[in-house]
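Two proteins follow. First one:
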Amino acid sequence: MEQAYIEDSMEELLEYQKNGDLEVRNRLVLSYLYIVRSAAVQLRGAAANSGQEEDLLNQGVLALMECMERFDASKGAKFETYAYIRVRGAMIDYIRKQDFIPHRTRNMGKKINEAYMQLANETMREPTLEELSEYLKLDAGKLNQYMKDINNSAVLSFEGMLNEVTGMAVKQELPMTDMDLKPEESFMKQEIQTILADGIDSLSDKEKAVISLYYYDEIKYAGIAKIMGIGESRVCQIHTKAILKLKTIMEEYMRG
């Protein structure tokens, strides 16, 4: 049943590419809208409000329609795989161009890390959000939002880098097998997976735990905080630090 649905959609796609019928295009957009939604879910933390979320979805639909125009079935790739990679990449590019993360927020990252290390050395334990807030003379709610924004910026920078270099995302919502890729693409995918796996192994125990719980178990920061017995803001900070380490590892790999 599912195979027949996919074949019907592909027939409509080929029909649209031949005659440009707008009704066919609209049906195809509805059929493949799940690709846009899937990509948007992974980037849900980047948009600060519902208006930005709507802009992100709109950008995804535009990218999907462009994929429908450009897709070449003769190359042997699945349209779903092709579209997901490019829709997600377009969303990341849009977020970075729109500068959803304020410049001031980026500058706060270093100050927060310095404050954390200073307080940790003084108290011989992990400082609380309230202690960091008092040290930085910053409202606790504002500080917590800064930390979340800094984390989103780090994640987007890391995933954007991988998209630019390999055309693949860190974690795919859609199934992708080596049969979907050319030999050289399959080799690159395997090599990158190995580099990332080694990079994760090099993280501290807490960093590995956060990465595993967040990406593989799909648990939100509040849930991870309860499991690990630490504050939610600390989970966010650990996640950011782990992502930046992995980004450095990947940058070194790309430089050869």
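Second one, unrelated to the first:
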Amino acid sequence: MDKIFNNTQIAFSLKSDTELDRAYFLFKLIANEPLVRIGTAVTNFALKAHLPVEGLIRATVFDHFCGGINEMDCLSVVDKMYTKGVSSVLDYSVEGKEEEAQFDLALNMTLKTIEFAKERKAIPFAVFKPTGLGRLDLYTKVGEKQSLSAEEQTEWNKVKERFELVCKTAHDNDVALLIDAEESWMQDAADDLVEEMMRKYNKEKVIVFSTLQMYRWDRLDYLKQLHEKAKTEGFYIGMKLVRGAYMEKEHERAKEKGYPTPICASKQATDDNYNAAVDYMMHHIEKMAIFAGTHNEESSYKLLEMLATNGIDKSDTRVWFGQLYGMSDNISYNLAANGYNVAKYLPFGPVRDVMPYLIRRAEENTSVAGQTSRELNLIKTERDRRKLK
């Protein structure tokens, strides 16, 4: 297998020298954990105190990791990436809201992105987070089979109605829909809702995709159990596979509540679990579709090998690779240049409201040291290459 991910000329072909310098500066900062902690605290304070920092945030970290403040704002980025064969997933990345009005806003934004996707080949998927459509604590109560008050039952019925409307709209417009995974303690309720949507809207092909966080040791078994249901009940399975995004919170809650951590014992165990899920899905690809959301080069190469070994065409729409905007361009653009299906998650939303997402991105990059150093080395390689031109 050719090592295609080292080609920095292709990886950064859309970045100007200035943008490359900004990326280098940002990842140097992210590599420094104390600086990330200080920067996060200062940023949160400045926003709460309504200090005029949004322009600075927009010009630096926001523009690197986000497509814009609204869906129209993202179109220039969408079109630019698509010139290199990289598609976009418009991701309304406002997190941590708890009010019904905010859930309705997220619902309407998701419906709007489905309309956008219907009209544009460059946007093959829509996406939403379950907690964008309802409260995390409510999902938790439902998942734990706790009794709901009359008011909570009404609230939960609204969550189900939002899910139904989004999935039906995606189905009616023939737009694939990614539904993200979140904290383990709310995931059972979300899984049940997504399964219901798969039964209903994945009868002929995959429209609805769930998400498996493979740093959880129980997720491969869940996938196999879901497959048995799908075979019996006659529906297709769509699955986005990721490693996971809430590890510290998961460990802390497990310790606090006195139950075994749901997270794999080691990074290697997580990698093995991820690769095993990819392998399982590829062996049953006739009834599945996979969105491999990974920044891991080894896992990406393994999937490339599986495609070749099984004689599956590079452009087969049952297999997609996905990365986050602003990260792992060496994977995204080199895959696209070689004819594979690739989509970047393109977050958008008001600067102030997207800050929780951006802070999570910075913290995750800080905790995965290898990822940040790899980004820095690639950027440095490309800067040096351009100097020699």
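SUMMARY FIELD: The first strand starts at residue 87 and ends at 92. The beta strands are 87-92, 125-128, 176-179, 208-213, 237-242, 288-293, 319-324, 342-348.
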